[in-house]
Design a protein that fits this description.
The chain is an alpha+beta fold and 283 residues long. 27% of the residues lie in helices and 29% in strands. Strand 5 and strand 6 form a beta hairpin. Bound molecules: 4-diphosphocytidyl-2-C-methyl-D-erythritol 2-phosphate and adenosine-5'-diphosphate. This is 4-diphosphocytidyl-2-C-methyl-D-erythritol kinase.
Amino acid sequence: MSLPPDTLNACLAPAKLNLFLHVVGRRADGYHLLQSAFRLLDWGDRLNFRRRADGLIRRLGSVPSVAEADDLVVRAARLLQGRSGCTLGADIEVDKQLPMGGGLGGGSSDAATTLIALNHLWGTGLDREALQALGLELGADVPFFIYGRDAFVEGVGERLQALELPGAWYVIVSPGVVVPTAEIFSAGELTRNTEPIKIADFAASTTRNDLQPVACNRYPEVAAAIDWLARFAPARMTGSGACVFAQVAAEADAQRIVESCPARWKAWKARSLPRHPLFDLVG
Ligand SMILES: C[C@@](CO)(OP(=O)(O)O)[C@H](O)COP(=O)(O)OP(=O)(O)OC[C@H]1O[C@@H](n2ccc(N)nc2=O)[C@H](O)[C@@H]1O
Ligand SMILES: Nc1ncnc2c1ncn2[C@@H]1O[C@H](COP(=O)(O)OP(=O)(O)O)[C@@H](O)[C@H]1O
């Protein structure tokens, strides 16, 4: 079998937003059952991949505060290599753009892009479903990025149904604090029994992020960022925070809000992305 060219460069690992996030129950192992609408954005990290014949997996350059062996790109590559029995390796370079631990899914998206890209470069031939199952072993958000389009997500992130949403512009604000996911999920005050909604009712339902009140109470900067952004448009936290977002009518509105963001925070504009750019690389 012939392999494709040995490099894939400037592959996007897009960010995601959780347009809403409901906690609808808890599994026996303590993990929380969620409902959420995940939306892809056209903004993210960029990854370069080069196939190696010697089987080594190396991360080139450094991602701040993440050791090479812990990096989700390295873990994703090792997982695919181990499960497929592939003897090839890869050099992986990550140009980190997304704030880490921000609820934008950056690490998960890096892992998903790695699984898709190396499955292609190595000719390992896993289909989308198999890659999603592999991704779930790395993190709850990974299957969504491999699925590659906006989705209504249930379970802990493994049950996905396509959502058709109109294109939109968003402003994302990072309030510069780290909100540990585990702390929010283990909080006594977290609402864990939100009534499940049906995908068909999503557009008409009143939704929220159940993790937001807990994060806002414990991390006042998150609340302050929501209050500030809400002066322009309805604002909400994504995932377990700390980033918050608002949908706006047009790019010019997004630009104006980004330019007026208080200096102690960071703000970006981004547009929705109908498909993951590597969507067609998966069979
Ligand atoms: C909340 C979400 C929504 O997109 O995203 P992020 O904010 O991370 O982007 C995810 O479900 C994040 O899932 P996951 O990627 O597994 O989170 P991790 O950081 O590994 O979880 C840390 C800890 O939070 C708890 N946890 C996480 C997910 C979940 N459905 N129930 C839980 O109880 C578990 O104790 C877990 O050990
Ligand atoms: N390539 C990576 N990029 C970002 N975070 C990573 C990566 N590899 C491992 N991590 C770890 O995953 C954690 C969660 O990161 P991230 O996915 O960016 O946030 P979130 O899950 O809140 O959206 C980070 O705090 C970091 O310790």
